[in-house]
Amino acid sequence: MSKKDVLSKLNRPVDRRNFLKACGVLGVGTVAGGILQSKFDVVGLGRGLKKVSQTRVAMGTYVTVTAVHTSRDLAEDAIGRAFDEMDRLIAVFNRHDSASPISVLNRDGSVSGPPPELKDVLGWARHFNAATAGRFDVTVKPLVDLLSEPVAASAMPLDDQIAAALGRVDAGGVDVTAKEIRFKNDGMGVTLDGIAKGYIVDMMSAALVERGVTDHLVNAGGDIRTSGANASGKPWTIAVEDPQKKRNYPDVIRMTEGAVATSGSYEIYYDREKVFHHVVDPQSGVSPQHSVSATVRARSVMVADALSTGVFVAEPQEGVMLVESARPTYDTTCLILSAAGERYVCDGWAAT
Questions:
Q1: Could you tell me which CATH number the domain at 101-183 has?
Q2: Residue 351 contacts by C-beta under 8 Å, 6 or more apart in sequence?
Q3: CB count in 10 Å sphere of residue 76
Q4: What is residue 133's three-state secondary structure?
Q5: Contact at 8 Å (CB) between 93 and 115?
Q6: Within a 13 Å sphere around the CA of 280, how many CA atoms are in the beta-carbon half?
Q7: What is the spatial distance between Cα 28 and Cα 220, in angstroms, rounded to a whole number?
Q8: How many CB atoms lie within 10 A of CB 179?
Q9: What is the pLDDT of residue 348?
Q10: What is the residue extent of each domain of the chain?
């Protein structure tokens, strides 16, 4: 599930499933940055300020960067640097690119001289696996492959196939050293779709700040990072997407410094009955049905991204407890919408 900056004309609602089908791809980094690159949209705001925005297609979605600054040239340069950083990191995390480090790892079971960003994200992935009691697990690739490929061909996976794939899921089975990343067991694979996009958005935001653009918003298909103030000098306004796509937004939040991400069942389905979707429970081997969306607000998009995935896999009450346990470290809060139409919120959500 995604959230849209309802104030941004460049980020109109998108049917993500149809968009991805049209591209013929699924997952992080499966559309190269720059395939669609809009011109800069520049709006004068008075007080010498300008709002500068640009949208590109990357990571299977639309990525929009909006900056507010007195200098148009500096803002455009900073946005370009942010997209350069995005492209650089996509080359690391794109499991659909046979030349990427993560593809080499998945194919050969090991990769020598891995980039520091890959080691960093895998380290965080193990941390969030523990923080979510195993609900978030990047080694679910064997299950994702099993559910997506046969189901897309109208063939339901068998119980013994699911059991076999589960046997290759092992969060502790990824050995990371300074010189190498190696799987401890044969047949393992990792997908960083639930954490890498958030990491990339955080690095894009850091690139903007480094260039002196502290007032900005980065929106990568609903993985959102905000900094400073919007065009009106007020906190950025973010609408939590309506799972029914009828613009009945479950909530609207306002942020200056922070991040938000949502996981949901309605984005990508592999079957017409909408039983198998892109989020897989690493413990049961099937797609969870407890909730329709889980939105997490945190200090960074990577944290919100990983926790929202783990929370979505858990039952709503457990998801709330997981996010509240992470609050002292990551300033987290959440909104969970159950499949039964119930609304679960962490303490502090209404105050956002």
A1: 1.10.3980.10
A2: none
A3: 18
A4: coil
A5: no
A6: 26
A7: 11
A8: 7
A9: 85
A10: 101-183
> CB neighbours (10 Å) of residue 307?
31
Determine how β-strand 3-4 pairs with β-strand 236-240.
antiparallel
- Tokens read off for 74: 């500096």
What pLDDT was estimated at residue 287?
80
pLDDT in tens, 275-301: 454 588 888 878 888 888 999 999 999
How buried is residue 309: exposed, middle or buried, by Cβ count under 10 Å (0-12/13-18/19+)? buried
**Among 87, 189, 174, CA closest to 127:** 174
d(CA 250, CA 178): 45
Pull the structure tokens for residue 94: 């794109």
> In angstroms, rounded to a whole number, what is the distance separating the alpha carbons of residues 203 and 146?
32
Amino acid in position 324: E
Distance between CA atoms of 260 and 339, rounded to whole angstroms?
A: 21
Q: Does 79 have pLDDT greater than 60?
A: yes
d(Cα 256, Cα 7) in Å, to the nearest integer?
15
Supply the pTM of this predicted model: 0.86
Residue 192 has pLDDT above 70, yes or no: yes
